[in-house]
Design a protein that fits this description.
The protein has 615 residues and is an alpha/beta fold. The protein contains 22 helices and 21 strands. Helix 3 crosses helix 5 and helix 19 crosses helix 22. The radius of gyration is 31 Å and the shape is globular.
Length: 615
């Protein structure tokens, strides 16, 4: 085959299989036969033969270069970069494969290893002895599941052999049971390069036992800096597990007080005060991420309790803070707890996701978000926010204090297909940006159909859809703070990407067409500078994106003008837009275009232009 040197792949001490998939996938087609007269080798026999070669990867590599049929038959047997062991038989087969003549370099292909214990024939206790660390020199991630050390304690040789996996930086332990925290810590200490430890549904048979294993790892070798604690049990069923997790959390606090990054699942905590006590143990904390919601039995903290917690709040200097799927009421209290200059003054990254299922709106959330952003000030570089817009505009971030912001990502959900609502949210967001360092702006608007509206459309239209609104909005886009937005190219993405999408069947293509025309006109200055890429899903015109000047996109200049009554129009029914162009209004109301589209305000399309209809 042109472009491929088989000798470099299958011969030599350093031969690898890395990259074959991405190179070969684009070169081969499904098997076809040009002549039916020639005898065919039954595909079942080909599959059977290749099954025999499953643990001979380099012979399989040779087979992939023979023909299309052999390529696809051999391809499905390759492991890729992820190795998974689920039984003792699979372990023995892998040992045979790695230790066979010529197959040792194949171990360099794997970067992740997942081991699931077999309760019938346990084998995790022997895997590091069977597959020494030098066989998998590029392994960086190890996952262990269903390992029960309480039944039979691993031999000292297990920990000694595990220490030869010097490249592992991430260890995930899921649904495992240990006699004590000392045993768990001994596993983590055996990995000299471990940086990230994840514990999910881990239980201790004898918690709070004094830790005798500090001798197993010198302090200068301990690189662990991130711990994740969580559970797979839903909140409705987690009451029985809260006690187990509570004991584990106390031991983790006593064992790893030096970690700097925490990722915590709120379902593991029995109360707000429980979380408060746990966090107070980590004085060196710099990154904190909280997920999900407290259990249904946990009551929100009272005003008196919040005053007490705030007075005795942990005061680490955070550089990264995140709330993911945390209900708004709990998010509001957590933000209030951390709204201190000591905690927020060094914040560089904030990500907030307020899209928890069946979440009720909270009026205090917006002010607390604004306060955290104000305290972060010029230190904040990256902000990611995802929220529902159906409850109002209070959750739209106010960024006047963040003058050094370089990356902003905002995802508005549950937005009604109303042009005034979309333009109001965009105007509030963009007009508050004060950072001239902004180089990446991503906005996603997720439309959803709503039969009823909490806000009056007439009020929104009268306030935002005045004849000068387009000019005022484009003036915001032309401010000096946006001059450094990078233009798009074949190699680089545009500085600004705005995506309007919907998966609602009630929202018709006509609606997206009207919104698309309106958005193209609204963001004409950025399209002229080629710093913006617009996406519409589904796109009414079948385009992947819009990146060009509006005149080249629509075939005519796009503008929004207010329709005047014929009796008041001195030009006899003609309308002048902001640029002074005169256009003739197409006869008849727009009931056919935007009326069918189901927009919540009345507009007309005139010569491919979206216009407000007379009241």
């Amino acid at each position: 085959m042109p472009g491929y040197q088989m000798t470099g792949v299958v011969d030599g001490a350093d031969r690898l299989l890395e990259g074959h998939d991405q190179y070969l996938d684009s070169c081969f087609r499904p098997p076809t036969y040009s002549n039916n007269t020639y005898p065919r080798f039954p595909p079942e026999l080909i599959d059977h033969i290749f099954e025999i070669l499953r643990y001979d990867p380099f012979t399989l590599t040779r087979c992939r270069f023979i023909c299309h049929a052999w390529y696809h038959a051999a391809k499905r047997l390759f492991w890729g970069s992820w190795l998974e062991l689920g039984t003792r038989e699979v372990l023995d087969d892998c040992v045979h494969m790695f230790l066979s003549n010529g197959n040792r370099p194949y171990g360099k292909t794997f970067t992740s290893l997942k081991i699931v214990e077999d309760p019938q024939r346990p084998f995790i206790r022997v895997f590091p002895m069977c597959i020494p660390g030098y066989i998998l020199p590029r392994l960086t991630s190890l996952g262990i599941e269903d390992f029960d050390c309480a039944v039979a304690r691993p031999h000292d040789r297990f920990f000694h052999s595990l220490s030869y996996y010097t490249g592992i930086t991430r260890l995930g332990i899921t649904q495992c049971c240990f006699r004590s925290m000392a045993e768990l810590r001994r596993i983590s200490n055996a990995l000299p390069s471990l940086e990230h430890l994840s514990l999910w549904d881990v239980t201790l048979q004898h918690p709070l036992v004094p830790d005798p294993v500090t001798r197993y790892v010198p302090s200068y070798r301990n690189k662990l800096k991130r711990i994740g604690l969580g559970t797979y049990h839903p909140t409705s069923e987690s009451a029985a597990h809260l006690y187990e997790h509570g004991r584990l959390l106390l031991d983790v606090c006593a064992t790893y007080p030096y970690v700097t990054e925490l990722e915590l699942d709120l379902r593991c905590y029995s109360s707000f005060s429980h979380l408060h006590r746990v966090l107070s143990h980590f004085s060196h904390l710099s990154n904190l991420s909280l997920r999900n919601a407290f259990g249904p039995h946990v009551e929100p903290a009272s005003m008196a309790d919040m005053t007490l917690y705030t007075a005795h709040a942990p005061n680490p200097s955070l550089s990264t803070f995140g709330l993911v799927y945390v209900p708004q009421l709990w998010a509001s209290q957590l933000l209030k707890l951390w709204s201190t200059p000591q905690v927020c003054s060094q914040l560089e990254v904030i990500w907030l996701d307020f899209t928890a299922i069946e979440d009720a709106p909270c009026a205090d959330l917006g002010p607390h978000v604004t306060e955290v952003l104000r305290l972060a000030g010029t230190a904040l570089k990256t902000l990611e926010l995802e929220c529902y817009l159906a409850n109002g505009y209070d959750v739209v971030p106010r960024l006047t204090a963040n003058t050094a912001l370089t990356m902003l990502t905002v995802h508005f959900r549950a937005v009604e297909p109303s042009l005034p609502r979309i333009q109001r949210a965009l105007c509030i967001l963009l007009s508050d940006i004060r950072s001239s360092h902004l180089g990446r702006l991503r906005i996603t608007i997720n439309l959803s159909h709503s039969e009823t509206s909490e806000y009056g459309d007439e009020v929104l239209v009268s306030e935002t859809d005045s004849p000068s609104f387009t000019f005022d909005f484009q003036s915001v886009l032309s401010r000096g703070v946006f001059h450094r937005l990078p233009a798009h190219s074949e190699q680089d993405e545009a500085g600004v990407v705005i995506q309007v999408q919907t998966d609602s069947e009630e929202i018709q293509i006509a609606t997206m067409s009207a919104i698309k025309s309106y958005m193209i006109n609204l963001f004409a200055p950025w399209l002229d500078r080629e710093v913006l890429r617009l996406h519409f899903i589904p796109d009414p015109d079948g385009e992947l994106s819009v990146t060009r000047d509006p005149s080249s996109v629509l075939g005519t200049h796009t503008s929004i003008t207010k329709i005047q009554d014929a009796g008041d129009d001195e030009s006899g029914g003609n309308v002048c837009d902001a640029s002074g162009d005169t256009d003739v209004i197409s006869p008849g109301p727009i009931d056919g275009a935007l009326g069918v589209a189901g927009l919540t305000s009345d507009y007309q399309v005139v010569n491919n232009r979206t216009r407000r209809a007379p009241l």
